[in-house]
């Protein structure tokens, strides 16, 4: 069930790898959206705003662990591409050890700092309690999130993007069912939506691991595979930490943006929340192509096939651009219909605000798609420092643009800070990618 991406048509391999990823990422967004839709439609717009106000802090913490778990599995993919079976097993053991240690420490700190961070972000008083209740539960479940991301990341590193999809679909259905049970039957409010997410992630991770242990020889770890080696740990950390910090650095900019947005009141926060959920779903094709190119690049880098990496990135860039144009047009044209999924027909004041967001962001999806391709290609070949610095560039642009443009032209200025940040990150990523690939192909073997 593993797939060697070092032979065969690059476009066919990437597309076939991307399709299950895309379906899985869409389902993951759907069960994230399920929280938002059910909360907005059953509890109210203020509850929707309460969940939305937690988004940047969730991104700050969970994004760090998504980047970290993705980073440690880059080494797994490289060892798999190099046909190093023992190295793959040792990498799985090391990745598990590192993720367990860092997630345990972060859970405690995140829960303690939840209240102060929400205050620091100027969270409106009418949604503060709901935001706090939701966020504390999400942070308690950090271990469950890391567990699922790690197991699915390892499986993808082996070239299989279909197995995580199966269990993610099951988890998505479970999440939606638990949303209704916890919110409508047990009256747990927004905290119920958070518990539904955590339990679903944990279930998905457990099921995925049980399946993998039966189907993949690489998961049959031996005692010596667990022997800790600082040099081998550093091989993982030198990729994982920059990838993790890249997400968190980006998240700091989003927190600044959310802080400015909070000053416009709970209606603007609710509109931005609904728009961001639509946005996250719309960019999944580009995001999935990016994950595919990371695995593809990592395996081919391990095999020393550098020209093949360049060919795959070129074709991914074209594919991503086509999807970006299509999805950008869709969210702009069907914006009112998408918005009513979240707030129903009783809040027409939200729709113009969502439309503003979709016009400013949807028209720039091409830039974001290229950002995904170049960033993941660099990370796949182990060059994680530049993506981290591109995240810093994104932070600077968003941190300056959100308050300056927000103060000058209001809500639309906050919306514009996103595409401006994408430009700020894509330029250094593109320069770095073309420089690195030129150097690699000058000494490649295939």
Automatic annotation (TrEMBL):
GO cellular component, one term: plasma membrane
Keyword Transmembrane helix set for record: yes
Keywords per UniProt: Antiport, Cell membrane, Ion transport, Membrane, Transmembrane, Transmembrane helix, Transport
Transmembrane spans: 12-31, 43-71, 92-112, 132-151, 163-186, 192-212, 316-334, 354-374, 395-414, 420-437
Pfam families, per database record: MatE
Record-given protein name: Multidrug-efflux transporter
Membrane topology: Multi-pass membrane protein
GO molecular function: antiporter activity; xenobiotic transmembrane transporter activity
GO biological process entries: monoatomic ion transport
InterPro entries hit by this protein: MATE_fam, MATE_MdtK, MdtK-like
Coiled-coil segments on the chain, per record: none
Subcellular location: Cell membrane
NCBIfam families: matE
């Amino acid at each position: 069930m593993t797939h060697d991406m070092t032979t065969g048509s690059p476009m066919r391999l990437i597309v076939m790898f991307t399709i299950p990823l895309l379906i899985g990422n869409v389902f993951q967004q759907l069960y994230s959206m399920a929280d938002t839709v059910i909360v907005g439609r059953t509890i109210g717009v203020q509850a929707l705003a309460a969940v939305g106000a937690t988004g940047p802090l969730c991104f700050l913490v969970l994004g760090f662990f998504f980047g970290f778990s993705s980073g440690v599995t880059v080494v797994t993919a490289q060892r798999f591409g190099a046909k190093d079976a023992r190295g793959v097993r040792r990498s799985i053991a090391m990745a598990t050890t590192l993720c367990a240690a860092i997630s345990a420490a972060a859970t405690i700190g995140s829960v303690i700092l939840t209240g102060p961070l929400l205050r620091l972000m100027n969270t409106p008083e009418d949604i503060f309690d709901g935001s706090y209740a939701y966020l504390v539960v999400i942070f308690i479940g950090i271990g469950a999130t890391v567990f699922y991301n790690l197991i699915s990341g390892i499986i993808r590193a082996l070239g299989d993007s279909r197995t995580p999809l199966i269990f993610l679909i099951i988890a998505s259905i479970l999440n939606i069912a638990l949303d209704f049970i916890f919110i409508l039957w047990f009256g747990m409010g927004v905290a119920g939506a958070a518990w539904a997410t955590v339990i679903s992630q944990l279930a998905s991770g457990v099921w995925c691991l049980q399946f993998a242990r039966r189907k993949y020889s690489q998961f049959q770890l031996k005692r010596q595979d667990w022997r800790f080696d600082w040099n081998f740990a550093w091989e993982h950390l030198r990729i994982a930490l920059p990838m993790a910090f890249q997400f968190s650095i980006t998240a700091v900019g989003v927190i600044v943006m959310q802080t400015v947005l909070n000053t416009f009141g709970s209606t603007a926060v609710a509109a931005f929340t609904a728009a961001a959920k639509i946005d996250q779903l719309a960019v999944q094709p580009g995001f999935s192509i990016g994950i595919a190119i990371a695995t593809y690049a990592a395996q081919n880098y391990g095999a020393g096939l550098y020209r093949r990496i360049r060919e795959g990135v070129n074709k991914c860039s074209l594919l991503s651009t086509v999807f970006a144009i299509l999805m950008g047009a869709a969210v702009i044209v069907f914006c009112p219909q998408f918005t009513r999924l979240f707030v129903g027909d009783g809040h027409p004041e939200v729709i113009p605000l969502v439309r503003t967001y979709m016009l400013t962001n949807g028209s720039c999806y091409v830039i974001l798609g290229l950002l995904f391709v170049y960033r993941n290609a660099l990370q796949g070949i182990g060059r994680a420092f530049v993506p981290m610095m591109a995240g810093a560039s994104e932070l600077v642009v968003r941190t300056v643009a959100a308050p300056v443009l927000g103060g000058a032209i209001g809500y639309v200025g906050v919306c514009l800070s996103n595409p401006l940040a994408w430009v700020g990150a894509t330029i250094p990523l593109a320069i770095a990618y073309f420089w690195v690939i030129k150097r690699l192909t000058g000494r490649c073997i295939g």
